[in-house]
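Exercise: predict the structure of this protein bound to S-adenosylmethionine.
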Amino acid sequence: MITLYKQLLRNKERFIKATESLFTDENNCEEKYYEFRNEFNSCTDKQRRASLFVYLNRHCYNGLCRYNSKGIFNTPFGRYTRPRVPRKEMLHFIETAAHATFECADYQDTMNKAKRGDVVYCDPPYVPLSATSYFTDYHVGGFNWDDQILLAEKAEHLAKQGVRVVISNHDTKKTRSLYKERNAKITIFDVQRTISCNPSNRKKAKELLAIFG
Ligand SMILES: C[S@@+](CC[C@H](N)C(=O)[O-])C[C@H]1O[C@@H](n2cnc3c(N)ncnc32)[C@H](O)[C@@H]1O
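Solution:
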């Protein structure tokens, strides 16, 4: 994502044109998809890798961005009739993100930078809803229950220093008590699930927002 953003900033027209050249009818088939996926996984050219990322995102199953434990993108082909380049969306993104700084770091490091009066929003990996919800474990390293506790403790600690912290997660008994015990206010809301291996599971799931401070 960060490489993609940097490529857009460097030369948006050149980047979008290069990306559009991948979105042809001939490239919308399984064979080409897996060829590009292999290329992406070993690609060191930043512009090419970012273009392939957009191609994969728009041609893969459910738009799911999933890597295995070795950091290899492994989402299967998605079978869409005519995927399109999100040109308008990318241009809009550059405008709105013009004043943003993107960093890839552990949340503890990022949160350590917060100062009194700042607001921190955390969107951590969801706690699993059931033993089979392996979809929540989609990145190298994982994020287990101990990590959820450490994050909640960090949020409580920052709140005491005048930094408001908002954490989103699935609404479960465990998450409610995790955040309540650390003095957060809880708000519950419904969201439309779009990522699930089982289409009948793509229904509304409850989420919560825990607000610290
Ligand atoms: C629910 S997703 C957030 C999705 C994001 N809000 C978006 O719209 O694309 C959880 C994210 O937490 C990241 N993550 C996992 N462990 C982390 C850590 N220790 N520090 C920071 N981020 C972490 C994962 O890589 C994943 O991208």
